[in-house]
Amino acid sequence: MVSGLGWYITKHSVGLWSAAPPPKGWQAPDMTGVQASIDSTALHVVETSAAVGTARIDGYTVVHDRDTGPASVPVFASTPDGHRVVARSDDPDVAAAMSGGMFVGHEIDLKPSHDHARFELR
Q1: Domain count within the chain
Q2: Quick one: which of 28, 61, 72, 77 could link to 55 by a disulfide (CB 3.0–4.6 Å)?
Q3: Which of 5-9, 13-17, 68-72 is least confident?
Q4: What pLDDT is recorded for position 82?
């Protein structure tokens, strides 16, 4: 058995090797039902221009600049109506604060911007 992961760990692969072929030959299973079940769990992502109001942080990372340290923070957050939004803060003070703590579950204020949704900590 050989296993592997894609670049961002979003694709998984497995290879099973044998000295003898399968008794019925290679067969590709019909995965349409399974894929439909997976697809039905997807969360709707709010468009950047509609990202206003409050949201709760589901996950985030702090982007560091080589010379200045914490620089920005992209977040995935959920709105009160159950939608998902992606937003970013380019405030280095927010990045520094979030670099030193745990903000998953923290409420944020969403503010539209010309090219991305931005957020402010509450």
Answers
A1: 1
A2: 77
A3: 5-9
A4: 87
Strands 53-60 and 63-65: unpaired
**pLDDT classification of 61: cutoffs 50, 70, 90:** very high
Residues recorded for the chain? 122
Q: Is residue 108 in a domain?
A: yes
Residue 92 φ/ψ, nearest 5 degrees = -65, -25
CATH number at residue 68: 2.40.50.840
The pLDDT assigned to 105 comes to 97
Q: How far apart are CA 88 and CA 69, in angstroms?
A: 17
The kind and range of the H/E element at 56 are: strand 53-60
Boundaries of domain holding 117: 48-121
Name residues whose C-beta falls within 8 Å of residue 117's C-beta, 6 or more positions apart in sequence: 46, 48, 51, 85, 86, 87, 88, 110, 111
Is 57 within the bounds of a domain? yes
β-sheet bridge partners, residue 77: 57, 85
Residue 20 covered by a domain: no
Tokens at 28, concatenated: 């590709």
